[in-house]
Amino acid sequence: MRALQRGGDYMALKFHTLDVFTDRRFGGNPLAVVLDADGVSEAEMQKIAREFNLSETVFVQTPTRPAHSAKMRIFTPRSEIPFAGHPTVGTAVLLAELNAPVHNGEQDALIVLEQNIGTVRVGARLRAGAAAFAEFDAPKLPAEAGALPPDDILAAGLGLIPSEVGFENHVPLCYAAGTTFAFVPVVSLEAIGRARVNGAHWERAFEQQGVSGVYVYTRQCTHTSSAFHVRMFAPQVGIAEDPATGSAAVGLAGIVHQFDGLPDGTHRRIVEQGYEMGRPSQIVLTLVVAGGKLTTVRIGGSAVRVSEGTIEV
After folding, report:
1. Is 56 known to be catalytic?
2. Which of 26, 149, 256, 267 is deepest in the core (most CB within 10 A)?
3. Which of 56, 114, 241, 272 is catalytic?
4. Could you tell me how far CA 206 lies from the centroid of its own chain?
5. Is 4's pLDDT higher than 60?
């Protein structure tokens, strides 16, 4: 809605921030969601995302189909992206909290979001006294997406030594599920804690490969309930390090299916991320395997609202 002029024409847009993939404030991955953004240009969206300076900012618009909940566009501080996990979970939780009716103290909703990657259906579960939880099926299954340089080049890009790259039968690969990531297994929690964007070596290792980010993972975890401890670096899109990356977790499902030999059935894994940043996050990753093939990847997590206000454009 266009506001009154005060020395010039501007819009006052309502926004909320949430912490996603956590059940408590000041953990997880922060997200800004700007509501009623139909009148906001793409250039203005990018400026607002740069102003919030979070991994992603969502702009909620009127859906093209009345049966859907909303259209959403997702921006990093540098560019628009077609899909991301924590914006999907956070936006669904917010819209459910704002709009879903309450029945016997429960507030469940199916939130249908139009994204650039396609339509994403998210189930949101709200309970009194507990953090909201949302879960969605990935709109695209992960697929291999090209080769990576030798281990010594990858290790140099991450500030590690070559013997720290790889474990068991896991080797570095590129996988894509709407967004392409380089997946680099490392041997230990200690090694992943030392990983970093290592100057010019990083460009040689990763930026020439056309990936959106680098996902480093190990089986050694902080919590015994977790299956993987991960970190994600994406300086190419303005994210030095991400506290929780749902879109990359979709790709991790492809890695797990390829290397871990899962039998047919449903398999649930907890992925921990963000600990090195002081923003612990837990992503619930569910894989469904049928006939030896990965048929469904599901991403879930909690989200909590932190703040709200208006931003003038």
Report:
1. yes
2. 256
3. 56
4. 20
5. no
pTM of the entire predicted model: 0.93
Q: How far is CA 160 from CA 98, 116, 173, 178, in A?
A: 46, 36, 17, 29
Over residues 80-116, the pLDDT tens digits come to 999 999 999 999 999 999 998 776 667 899 999 999 9
User: Taking Cα atoms as reference points, which of 287, 275, 221 lies closest to residue 29?
Assistant: 275
20, 122, 188, 249 from 86: Cα distances, Å: 6, 12, 26, 11
- Tens of pLDDT, residues 39-57: 999 999 999 999 999 999 9
